[in-house]
Amino acid sequence: MKTNQTKGVVRLLTLLLVLLLTTSMAFATGAKEEAAPSGSVSMTIATWTSNPDQIALLDSFVQGFAAQKGIEIDVTFESIPFAEYNTKLSLELQGQNGPDLFWVLETAAPAFIESGLLANLNDAMQAYDPEDISSDALELWSKDGNVYAIPFSTSPFFILYNKDLFTKAGLKTPEQYASEGAWNWDTFKMASKTIKEKTGVWGFQTVDGQGYDARILHNLAPIVRSYGGDFWTNDGQVLINSDASVAAVQLFHDMVYQDVSVVPPGNQSDFFAGNAAMTVGQISRVSKLNEASFAWGIAPMPSGPEGKSPVIGQAAIGAHSKGKQAALASELVAYMTNKDSVAAMSGIWPPARKSVLESEAFLTSNKSVSKEQMQNAVAASIKTGRVLPSHVKYPQIEVESKMVFDKLWQKNADVGAILDEVATVYAKYIK
Amino acid sequence: MKQHSLKANHRRDAIIGWAFITPQMAGFVFFVLLPLISVFLYSVQEKNLLFGTSVFNGLENFRLLFADPLFSKSLVNTLIFSAGVVPLNLIFSLLLALYLGGGKMGTRFVRGIIFLPVVTSGVAWAIVWKYLLQGGDAGPINWFLSLVGIEGPNWLFEKGWAMASVIINRVMKNLGMNVLIFMGAVLNMPGDVIEAAHIDGAKRFTLFFKIKLPLLMPTVMMVAIVTIIGSMRVFDTIKLMTDGGPEGSTMVMVYYIYHQAFRMFDTGFASALAVVLFLIVLVLTALQWFSRKRISFYES
């Protein structure tokens, strides 16, 4: 009896071993580097946009590249929600079926470069005119003279506003204030409060309603920097608890809890549905207003005590270094960011190419935005704007500091003390 | 000849037996056993998901874990969550089962309503509740409270209220399943015992505590174990409703494991957390299992 049991166990173990070996071999075969492409090639591109028009534009570049190479590319676009982007992308890149090309957020750039997941693009970029791309724009995406991703979007933040609500509240529009040189954070605060009092509609909604969590830097950076503050600097200084930063965050906190004019945490009122008079946007968001039931406009971000300090949201595209088609994907990255592709995208994602930025065609590239608006709110800001802070430990910084930032969103929060705590978290990582 | 035929039959039966269990065993090995072993192996490594690096570091992750204030916070939060969910779930599901098992009017309708959240998608459920629980006067619940002169809080963005909200939400979502299990037990209670108690003059209170509850105790034990394990492993409710906030006040252990592994990419540390959670659940389940004879009089 005992012998039979032993036999059973041995059989079970043998079966498990066979299963394990078979599966490992199957996985190993799947991971094998493919030969030079011929015929149809499958590729996946990860983005955080799900806008059908934007995906169609990206697809047209892929097909243009395929035609040039004389191959067929069967491309799949994988849209990952912004708040989950880094998490899901990292997981997929470490697996067997990660995307061949993927967008990278500026805040996560150093971490992704350090991880070795981005392919070196130096060879693929040989056909580029190096003078055409500003070296500043490539700085974040390079290390030791090697380029690992190419920015396709260098898009400044601006104010999107609901003209009807400004008129109803008896206010000038932000564009009018800007032309008079009076568009500063005090005017912004006054306008937000007046609109809430006179119309009952929220004066301001943070960027995509995520300004208290996933987009806290996007939300606070324009105010903080125009007050002369910052979060941290590349040379290792933590400035989030400087007097200027505290004053800037206090202004926003007062708007939320004293004036009660900003859509508060947890409230789902949306600018695009007409439930807030202003929000922060980028040119890629404007298409959401094509069927808006209200008149709208765009204006530059307000200036602060230190003048204008535009903030740029930068995004780049890179190739997966461990992907099955790494070389082809690198070439596709270069094609998607060449002068022609960039010019075609410029109305949605403003480029870092001087020749495109300085062209007349760029100013008229977005049909929903006037030439003047493009000049004042976009082109002018790209020249002087700065990207959001980034760091190789950004994922850790973001997660840990968010728990402390949460303390801000209470009526009686001590802004200075809480920012001191945030500074302590930053200091752990910023050296 | 006869012995040879018997052996052949045995072998054929064994092959058929193995063929039947192989799909199940393969699933168990690849999706349960190997990941479980991997977690133990990862827990003694410094392993980064983003960088794809792993270095053996002995018990360092466990040393860091016990010095980590967020670990103790997540442990306390898990206990608070379980202490809220388990008694509420057990008490309400048992009372509802006793009511519904009585065959009174409208029980079918009530049974349907109670079971509805169980079959509703967790994501849809959470999205609806996030809308209902908005702060200020935007949320329907606060609007309703304002009608009776109560100013409702910002439910998911204030520390104490956020935990209370997710506890109640979780109880409502899962109550129906336990009601169904209890109803099965209630309907199977021996009628003659209850009738004898009635004849002996037992009142409602005595009948429940001295007769019905002891009869239901094996089911109560089983439901309690499953509910406790479920509450210790809560993830979806937290992820969808509070993201662990505000200030980490709803950061329960499984969510903290996710946080460390997939947001901070520290897979080694996250695996050490998972090992600790595994041991806690194992000990709690063992304690309940071995104490069942004391609690349930006819457990063997």
Q: How would you portray this structure in words?
A:
The complex is a heterodimer of chains A (431) and B (300). Chain A is an alpha/beta fold. Chain A contains 17 helices and twelve strands. In chain A, the strands form three sheets. In chain A, strands 1, 2, 3, 6, 11 and 12 form a six-stranded mixed sheet that branches. The model of chain A is unreliable at 23-35 (pLDDT under 50). Chain B folds into two domains: 2-42; 68-295, MetI-like (MetI-like fold). Chain B has helices spanning 2-42, 60-67, 69-100, 107-119, 122-132, 140-147, 159-187, 191-199, 204-232, 236-241, 253-263, 267-290, 292-295; strands spanning 45-48, 53-56. Chain B contains 13 helices and two strands. With 300 residues, chain B is mainly alpha-helical. The longest helix of chain B has 41 residues, at 2-42. The A-B interface holds A 11-12, 15-16, 19-20, 23, 86-87, 90-91, 94, 111-112, 114-117, 213, 264-269, 395-396, 398-399, 402-404, 406-407, 409-410 and B 14, 18, 22, 25-26, 29-30, 49-52, 130-131, 133-136, 138, 154-158, 243, 245-248, 259, 262-265. Chain A: This is Sugar ABC transporter substrate-binding protein.
